[in-house]
Amino acid sequence: MQKTYTPKKQDLEPKWFIIDAEGKVLGKIATLVADTLRGKNKPIFTPHMDCGDFVIIINAEKVTLTGNKLDQKMYYSHSGYKGGLKTVPARKMLAEKPTKILQEAIKSMLPKNRLQKTFMNKLKLYVGAEHPHEAQQPTPLEVK
C-alpha cells in the first residue's frame, strides 16, 4: 500500500525571492507572489502547511494597472459605524500608499484561514529599489 508523503517542519527550507515591480502588471505580480508564498510551485506542497518562501517586492510605486483601472477601481474600508464606508480610487491609493495596492491584491488571492497571516508575514514590500534583506541573498523571480 502506498503512503502519502507529508513534509515535516524540519524538511522545509524557505528561500528568498525578489521581484522588481517596475512596469509590471499588478495582477500578474499578485498571482505569482501568492503562489510562491503558499509554496504551490514546490513538489512537496501541502495545503494545510506553510511550505512557502519569502518574497521581497521593490519599486512597488511603479506597478501598472491595465485599462481604466487607475480611475475606475475603488478600494473600500468601513469604520464600523453607520455611514462609515470610505472609497478611495486606485490612482489616489497608488500616490499615497503604493504598497497597500500590492498587499490587498496578494492578500485576496491567499486562502481565508489561519495561514493567511503567516503567508503575509513572509511578504516584504518596499517603495524604491532599496531593501534591508541583502544578507538573505534573494534570487530574482521573473514576472511573465
Tell me the layout of helices and strands:
Layout: E1 16-20, H1 26-38, E2 54-58, H2 69-72, E3 74-78, E4 85-89, H3 90-96, H4 98-108, H5 115-121, E5 123-125, E6 139-140
Parallel strand pairs: 1-2, 1-6, 2-5
Antiparallel strand pairs: 3-4
Report what the structure shows.
With 144 residues, the chain is α/β, with parallel strands linked by helices. It has a domain of 85 residues: Alpha-Beta Complex (Ribosomal Protein L13p, Chain: A), CATH 3.90.1180.10. The chain has 5 helices and 6 strands, in the order βαβαββαααββ. The strands form 2 sheets. Strands 5-2-1-6 form a 4-stranded parallel β-sheet. Strands 3-4 form a two-stranded antiparallel sheet. Strand 3 and strand 4 form a beta hairpin. The longest helix is centred in the first third of the chain and has 13 residues.
Question: What's the quick description here?
Answer:
Helix content is 29%, strand content 17%. By secondary structure, it is an alpha/beta fold.
Keyword list:
two-stranded antiparallel sheet, 144 residues, alpha/beta, Ribosomal Protein L13p, Chain: A, globular, four-stranded parallel sheet, 17% strand
